[in-house]
Amino acid sequence: MRVIEIARVALSCARSLGLVGALWAVTGSASGQTCLSADDMDASTRTALEAVARHYFDLAARADIAILRQNAIPSVASDFGGIEAAVKEHQENFAGAQATARPPFLLQAEGKEPLQRAEFLCGVFGKSGQTANSAVFVIPNLPPGNYGAVILDVAGKIPSTLSFVLQKVGNDWKLGGFYARPTRVAERDGQWYWDRAREFKAKGQNRNAWLYYLEARELLAPVPFMSTLTTDRIYDESQALQPADLPSGGSAVDLAAGGKTYKLTSAFPVGVGSDLDLVVKYAAPDVSNTNQTYRENVAVINALVAKFPELRDGFTAMIARAVEPSGKDYGTMLAVKDIK
């Protein structure tokens, strides 16, 4: 199961099914796709999922890459580089930290061939969609099998979640996915960014609002293929604000700067210490001439802030990164206060 690089799900999956009536306990989203929440599964399964997740957390906290790989499903073990890098990146934060398991989910996919779009509705849903204890998982190209989704809240130096996708192989729960995410960026949590997004929206600063909604959803979604009542609400509030003049969803936009036109490919917030900065990437044929690329980066930053002055209120610094076709890039940071 290739779940290390699953694309972000940006749909309000529950509402798209048109659930109506009173509350419903959902145990299946489609033929051959079943989800059991912690309250629905037998106690031994819940205990086993939580115990395995804690064991894998302990291995990650010790950076025991070899044992983690030995306990992974074959397709993941054969290409373990992504998980290994994530373990090394977060090991210092996990070492000595306490991890608390949230109620797990059991996902059961039937059939003989991989499901192109496996969709699992878990827990109790109402007439408007999700409730406080429900969740929706949408996983592409999922082979048939029994899977566990376990989210750990990690009280490390940086508050984080560590989520595991586990697959039942024989009597064992093997590692199928590893997702470590901070729950705070620039010393603030997802609710703070959600509140600020609403404030920007009320002031008509829709680009700032959109970018802050993105950050809120990123912090409040432990894995990219899971949606909850909270992430659905953020999605609903933000969709009308999606700007046509900033890159989003894989769509590039053009920006005129210094007599040239640059193709912006992505824009997203990033935390640097206690500051929130905005990163803008653009396509460049070559970045080997760093002096020239620096000047072009500065031109892009100046043009972007001149075109959208509201960005001064949302971010401490702007970072432009020129990216050549090979993937090699060159970045420049300017503090907003220094941008004329």
Any overview of this molecule?
It is a single chain. This protein is of the alpha+beta class and 340 residues long. It folds into three domains: 13-185, no CATH class; 188-221 and 229-239, no CATH class; 253-338, 2-Layer Sandwich (GMP Synthetase, Chain A, domain 3), CATH 3.30.300. The protein has ten helices and 19 strands. It has helices at 13-16, 43-61, 65-70, 74-77, 81-94, 190-202, 206-220, 229-239, 290-307, 311-314; strands at 24-26, 28-30, 33-36, 98-101, 105-109, 115-126, 129-130, 135-142, 145-155, 160-169, 172-182, 184-185, 188-189, 226-227, 253-257, 260-272, 275-283, 317-323, 329-335. Strands 2, 3, 4, 5, 9, 10 and 11 form a seven-stranded antiparallel beta sheet that branches. Strands 1, 6, 7, 8 and 14 form a five-stranded antiparallel beta sheet that branches. A five-stranded mixed beta sheet has the order 15-16-17-18-19. β10 and β11 (172-182) form a beta hairpin. It is globular, with a radius of gyration of 22 Å. It starts with 12 loop residues before the first helix and ends in a 5-residue tail after the last strand. Mean pLDDT is 90; it is low at 1-30.
Annotate the secondary structure layout:
Blueprint: H1 13-16, E1 24-26, E2 28-30, E3 33-36, H2 43-61, H3 65-70, H4 74-77, H5 81-94, E4 98-101, E5 105-109, E6 115-126, E7 129-130, E8 135-142, E9 145-155, E10 160-169, E11 172-182, E12 184-185, E13 188-189, H6 190-202, H7 206-220, E14 226-227, H8 229-239, E15 253-257, E16 260-272, E17 275-283, H9 290-307, H10 311-314, E18 317-323, E19 329-335
Parallel strand pairs: 17-18
Antiparallel strand pairs: 1-6, 2-3, 3-5, 4-9, 5-9, 6-7, 6-8, 8-14, 9-10, 10-11, 12-13, 15-16, 16-17, 18-19
Helix pairs in contact: 2-5, 6-7, 7-8
